[in-house]
Amino acid sequence: MTITYDDLNDLIKNGKIDTVVVACVDMQGRLMGKRLTGRHFLGLAQKKISISTFVYAVTIEGIAGGGYEISSVDTGYSDCQLCADLNSLHLLPWSEGAVLAISNPHNFVTSEPLFCSPRVILMQQIERLANLKLKGLFASELEFNLFNETYESASQKHWKNLNNHQYMNHHQYSTHHQYMNISASSAIEPFMRSVRNKLEEAGILMEATHPESLPSQHELNFVPADPLTMADRHIIAKHGIRDMAEVWNDCIFYG
User: Which residue intervals define the domain GS catalytic in the entry (predicted)?
Assistant: First the structure.
């Protein structure tokens, strides 16, 4: 669930939380940052940590690109400050003893938010709406492909001909569209039930899950919320589902 800073303070002091993940959202929608001890996080006066701007200048494979204003081999890979948003503290039920603090990157010298941060850009758009006396409401859905493979075994197969749960357990459903077919998703319902319940525990309000067209394809629907809340929930869900899949020795690809 979403918690307050006072809640976090109590949970850390009571020994129920020992890790605070301080992370920003990169250009590919991934969480990038550090895991702090709870004690150290509470001791940070301004709840800021340093991280390299390198994370905003890499490809999806993590390879450094050239020519970026913010960070490159030409200008150097400077640090920025991640400032934890204490209004976006989420328990991570799939990661024992952990809380996530979604953070915004700021320039070390000017303290200005980094212009290329997706979350910063969204906050600027929300401010523009507010100046027009408007508010946004955002309904998000998340689709992914779930395979009965580890990332290692999928890599060894060169990401081709991967096993999916429907094929292994419901062969009759593997050759045609699965869209909304409840029976087609029965094989992975234990996993999807865990996803729904743990996301709800993390404060990610769900409407439903259902199978999509392909045998391995599934969709999550979230309860609408304001744009920043919905964007945070979407990112946390992506992070959490991937972590949960690894525990089940499965792998996930987002489309």
Answer: 118-255
